[in-house]
Structures are given as structure tokens and as C-alpha cells.
Please model this.
Amino acid sequence: MTAAIRAEGLRKAFGGRPVLRGVDLEAPAGTVLGVLGPNGAGKTTTVRILTTLLAADAGRASVAGFDVAARGREVRRRIGLTGQSTAVDGLLTARENLALIGRLLRLGRAGTRRRVDALLDRFGLAAAADLPAATLSGGLRRRLDLAACVLGEPAVLFLDEPTTGLDPVSRTVLWDLVRDLVGGGATVLLTTQYLEEADALADRIAVVDAGRVIAEGTPAALKRKAGRDRLEVVLARPAETAETARLLTRLAGHPARPDPDRAAVAVPLPGGLDDLARVAAGLSAAGVAVTDFTLHRPTLDDVFFALTGAGEAEPAA
Ligand SMILES: Nc1ncnc2c1ncn2[C@@H]1O[C@H](COP(=O)(O)OP(=O)(O)O)[C@@H](O)[C@H]1O
Ligand SMILES: [Mg+2]
Model:
């Protein structure tokens, strides 16, 4: 099977400063690739190269089977892009915006009207269809962006931080729309800073940091890699935090981390139910009063922390 998106060793520098240092990506057709990384990691630069808006200094990439550098026209005919700077005109209504794009795509009068009506409906924009786009809420506006992007039925969609700054309800609506599009056969590359979003949508995730892919895999595999279950207890008597951390270190056989501000102690607990029972019995025998006792499974947050190094300086945005 050919990949719908493939990038090999992409490099890019701006003013001598490298921002992509050899990015490799691959997305099979009909899947969602999540590109997850903090501000400044190089996500938008990567998307701009893959969508032919920017030339790479080195490396190569193909989208829908066409080389992005040599066959830009073929690539552009098969992709949709929504980004932080949108193509939507604020003075036109939602319906007019979509109709304009339909004309640019030469879908024909009747064809355009049919498709625009269907999209307005499907994207929950029918009630707002005749308002100027500039007056729409952030969530509706983002839906309009996405509708504009899929009007030409692109095979490959690039969604650059599609839900950044959106309220949770709008975010969920957009997630459902993306799932719909993929169900219809599209391939999606989605960049995000939200681990939760990558977890919810992506078949595979590439974690990028400072212009490099530092991990790649399914959400489940990445979580397994980051590690182990972790027990957290919250104490009834905050003064006992340090002492309880020492006790938990002994009981669990791993270093426990006290959090005095919350009167909490966390400790790795990889041994499952047996470990849990032993630790609970040990705390009880020592007379430690606990107000909360929770086992945490690893999350993508843990992955991100483990990979990028917690406490390191944020890369410049
Ligand atoms: N046109 C440009 N000129 C100079 N620097 C740029 C340009 N575009 C991006 N950068 C820099 O490249 C780095 C990566 O940016 P970007 O790809 O936008 O990251 P992300 O989308 O992950 O936040 C940032 O440090 C950014 O300031
Ligand atoms: Mg960006």
C-alpha cells in the first residue's frame, strides 16, 4: 500500500536557524496521523512543506503519491488545508464563502448549490448560513473553515491546530466531523498541542520537538512506552507527607514523590493488584489516614513529559 503522506528527512532553516532537523512521517491512506508538539516545534513549517507552500532545504516528501517539490500542481489538486490563517472572507456569509470556493473549483452552479447545502447541514451551519462569517463564534467559524476545506472532496486533509482556542463543545463537534471525513476515506494529518486530541483522533502519533520526531506510534503503544501505573495518595494529616513518602518508597520498591502543597504522595506501582493490596495494607498498618487513594494509568501527558524532559525551557515560539 502506498502512503498518502510520506516525508523523509525534511530539513528547513530560517535565517541560518534550523527549525526542521530531519523530519520523517508516514500516513497510510484512510488514517489520521497526529503530529503532536509544543509551540515552535516545527508543526506548521512541516505542513507548509507538505502542502507546497514552502520548499524544504533538504529531504523529500510526497502527498497522494506525488512529490511535493516536483509535482506541486498534482498535490494541490488533491489536498485541503485549514490553518491558523484562514481563507474565509469575513464580509461574506458562510453560504457565499462556500459558493465562492465552489466556483473556484468549477463545480458548476447546481453542483455547487447542492454541495454547499449538504455541507452547511452536515457541519451544523444551516442556521448561521446567511450571517457574515466575521460575526460567527470561534467554533462556527472553525467549522466553516473545515467545510471550505472539504468542499472539493480532497483525498488528503491537513488540519493545522484545528481546535486551538476552542471551547470543549466545539472541539467535540470538530472531532466528530474529522472522524466522519476519515470514515469517508480521507487521509488526515492533524497537528495539535493537545495530547487528548491526538489520543482521541489519531491512528498514529508523531511527537515532534525542536524540529525532530522524537517518538512515533499508536497512542496505546506510546502510553505503554511512557510507562507504568502510578499510585497517588492524599493524606488527612499534611504533616505526615514526608514520612509517608519514605514509607511508600519502602512498600512500593520505587522512589515516591511527595507533594507537600497538596499533602499528596505519588509512587510508581507497576505490579498491579498485588502491589496495590500490599501498599494499602502497609499504609493501614502504619496508621496513615488517607482521604484519597487513586491508581493512575499512564496518559499521553506522561509520554510527553517523559520524552521532552519535564522542566526544560520552552523552545522559543
Ligand atoms: N517564515 C519564518 N521565518 C523565520 N522563522 C520562522 C518562520 N516560520 C517559522 N519560524 C520559526 O520556526 C520555528 C517553528 O515554527 P512553526 O513551524 O510555526 O512551529 P509550530 O507550528 O510547531 O508552533 C519557530 O521557532 C518559528 O519562530
Ligand atoms: Mg503552528
Summary: The chain has a mean pLDDT of 89.
